[in-house]
Structure formats: C-alpha cells, structure tokens
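Q: Convert this sequence to structure tokens.
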Amino acid sequence: MDDPDWFRGGVWTKSLDGSPVTPYGAITAAWWKRLVALMVDNLLLYIVTVLVSVRSGSSGAVTTIRFVAELALTFCYFGYLNGVPGQTVGKRLFRQGVVAVLSLAFLFPAFLDGLWPLWDQKRQAWHDKVVRSVVISS
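A:
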C-alpha cells in the first residue's frame, strides 16, 4: 500500500496546514513570516545607521568609512545571529530559527533568493541551501 503524500516511508513530509517538514520533524517557517522578520532586522540596522550618521560628518571619506562600517555591521549581524544562536531579533519575534540540513545550491541575485521560498518544497532560499539550513517555526 502506498503512503499518502504527507507521510512517506513512515516520515511526516508536511504539517497539518500543509507546511513542509524537515527530515528532523521541524515545520518550516512561512514565507511571509520570514519576510516580516527580515524587515524587523533591517529596521533595527537602519536605526543604528541613522544614529551613527547623525553623529558623524558628511565628508567623502567619512561617508565611505561609514558605508563600509554599515556593510560590516550587516554581515556580522546576520552572520553571527543566524550562525551561532540561530535567530536574529526579527526571527526571535516571530518564533523562527535556523537549523542545519543537508542540501546544495549556487549563489544567485538577492531578489530571487528572497522569493525562492515561495515555490521551494522545503521553503528554503538559496542562501539557506548553501549553508544547509531551514528557517523553522519554534
């Protein structure tokens, strides 16, 4: 007898609401929650950027240094928080986390990367696939 689509080989493949499930049984996060969490994270980074901009001058050298510092802050914020505790502030607000899974992909433009979870079976963006992770509801 064939297993139903949501329960293949004795393993759950979808939650009751149809959300994909990881091989470890965690439910993947909804795309819209990931988007709003990202917006919260970017708002926090924007606030820090504005506060730093108000305190600094506006010469060409200062602007360039500020841009490099903002870029470094962004990479450190997302890299550290997604990598070590597995949650950024936005993900924590929406009860999401990043966990490791086995998968591969290539790097592509950021816009398509953000939309990819809309049609991906595991709701993974390309950057999730590259680092072998999924965003889950916790």
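Helices lie at 31-55, 60-83, 89-93, 110-115, 126-130.
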